[in-house]
Design goal:
Glutamyl-tRNA Synthetase, domain 3, 2 domains, three-stranded parallel beta sheet, three-stranded antiparallel beta sheet
């Protein structure tokens, strides 16, 4: 049974880029006659905006993207994340870390490692063998130890759009955070636990999140969770050459009229390579049939079908 999901963070309303991800995940689920769930990823409470979750859900409904089952909120799942951390702790696969971000970046710079813009510093395992008098700030996954147990730090997978992928997590990321210094759960742990507990079989999301896949697959292995199949969609780019995101001021979707809703969906479908020519979606009355047609086109275009 196929089960997919759309998992927005309530840090603002949906924009053109997030609608592309929502539409792609919706179409993939419907093309496989599966379920499409919605999960609100509000684990990073300080960044969340009050009421944004309700606005996101309203926007999805305005666009005809109706989900199955109840909406899940990460903020209500603390005990599940703690159970997963305890599981890893019992396996001696996590350890407390006392390093600040500045210290990590300084250590990386001393070794001449890449500190380019938008690239997180690689954690070199400073606290792996002990805190050395530092107070514990965060909890990290011991990538080196798990890599030794699985006989390789390199993770391989096949993305349904991007093809064969691989990443040496130890060299390119290092031991990554599962529980942050501010006491909040890190995205990597929360999303892996949620996908497993919700029975997610296929993950369809933006290409900017592809880099997270290897880390999440390592956690799935360590926690004994089943792996998902991944498809990372094309991104929407702003006039400044950067991908649209809430962080760089992407404008909220204009859904103020029937025509605006149709145009937003046509633009999203076009980004996904689907037919969005004249007459495809001229009015909201055509929305159900447009979604059916796009679903059929998606089903015939995707070479990867459900595997047992």
């Amino acid at each position: 049974m196929y089960r997919g999901r759309f998992a927005p963070s309530p840090t603002g309303e949906l924009h053109a880029g997030s609608l592309v991800a929502a539409l792609a995940s919706y179409l993939d689920a419907r093309a496989h006659h599966g379920e499409w769930l919605v999960r609100i990823e509000d684990v990073d409470a300080p960044r969340c905006i009050e009421g944004a979750d309700k606005m996101i859900l309203k926007q999805l409904q305005q666009c005809g993207l109706h989900w199955d089952g109840n909406v899940v909120y990460q903020s209500q799942r603390d005990s599940l994340y703690q159970q997963a951390l305890d599981n890893l702790l019992a396996q001696d696969l996590v350890y407390p870390c006392g390093c600040t971000r500045k210290e990590i970046e300084e250590n990386q710079a001393l070794l001449g490692l890449d500190l380019s813009r938008n690239k997180a510093a690689v954690y070199l395992g400073t606290c792996r063998e002990g805190l050395k008098g530092k107070p514990a700030r965060a909890w990290r996954f011991n990538v080196r130890k798990w890599s030794e147990l699985r006989a390789s730090p390199v993770v391989h997978w096949t993305d349904r759009r991007l093809g064969p992928q691989s990443q040496n997590v130890l060299a390119e990321v290092g031991d990554f955070v599962l529980k942050r210094a501010d006491g909040l759960w890190a995205y990597q742990l929360a999303v892996v636990v949620d996908d497993a507990k919700q029975g997610i079989t296929h993950v369809v999301r933006g290409e900017d999140l592809s880099d997270n896949t290897a880390r999440q697959m390592l956690l799935q292995e360590a926690l004994g969770y089943p792996a998902q199949k991944y498809l990372h969609t094309a991104l929407v780019w702003g006039v400044n050459g950067e991908k649209l995101s809430k962080q760089n001021g992407a404008k909220a979707l204009n859904l103020s009229s029937d025509a605006a809703i149709c145009q937003s969906l046509i633009s999203a479908a076009s980004t996904l390579g689907l037919d969005a020519g004249p007459g495809t979606l001229g009015s909201l009355e055509q929305l159900p049939s447009a979604l059916v047609n796009w679903t059929d086109a998606w089903a015939h275009r995707q070479p990867t079908k459900i595997e047992a």
